[in-house]
Amino acid sequence: MQQRVAAIDLRSEEEAVIEIDTVLPDWVQSTLAERSVPIDLDLNLNAGVSVLALPKTLHQVVYDLVRNGMEAMGLKRPDQKIVIHTRISPDAHYVDISIWNSGPAIPISVQPKLFNALYSSKGQERGIGLLFARAAMDRMKGEVWLDSSSEDEGTRFVVRLRISGEHIQKVRGEEYDDK
Questions:
Q1: Domain residue extents for the chain
Q2: Cβ atoms of residues 27 and 62 within 8 Å
Q3: Model-level pTM?
Q4: Burial of 126 (0-12, 13-18, 19+ CB in 10 A)
């Protein structure tokens, strides 16, 4: 069974405002301790861009996606790597975290099943990572999806979270009122 970063109860964790580009480097460091696959961070959010999220839960989602990528790549090529990229969505309401790996493509026949309960191409006792990611992102009013998987491009998953109301009001020069 996949290791969990922490025991997480989606119903009881409190939402918090977090700056993704600030927490991602620490989260990645904890993942790097497991394997020696290079992880490049391409963090493109302006200072202060924050999201409303469940911090432990989001950490677990990122951890699972990075670890899935590491497992998919195996130890087959010396040029293998993972790239985590952050950006503000084109409509400026969301932060996108893309997690790309240089591993093999996910077969087209498998792609529709990826987020199904207990489906795994890796054998028994698996198949909860993407199901958990979908449930977690639903709870945070965000999304997670497979963005690309082709033989030339590796595989990319995207996690999308809404930018916090506090940040949007700061950008507009308004006082923030969370009531």
A1: 16-167
A2: yes
A3: 0.81
A4: middle
Distances (CA, A) of 51 to 35, 144, 154, 155: 29, 15, 28, 25
CATH of domain 16-167: 3.30.565.10
Handedness of CA 160, 166, 169, 170 (dihedral sign): negative
Task: Please name the residue that has the structure tokens 């580009």.
Answer: 21
Interatomic CA distance for residues 152 and 143, integer angstroms = 25
Banded model confidence at residue 4, pLDDT cuts 50, 70, 90: very low
Q: Based on DSSP, count helices (H) and strands (E) in the chain, helices before strands.
A: 4, 7
Gap between the Cα atoms of 45 and 48, Å rounded: 8
Pairwise pLDDT comparison (8 vs 103), residue with the higher score = 103
* CB neighbours of residue 13 within 10 Å: 18
62-111 pLDDT tens trace: 998 998 888 888 766 677 889 999 999 988 889 999 999 988 888 888 88
Residue 163 or residue 48, greater confidence: 163
Positive or negative torsion for Cα 28, 121, 111, 150 = positive
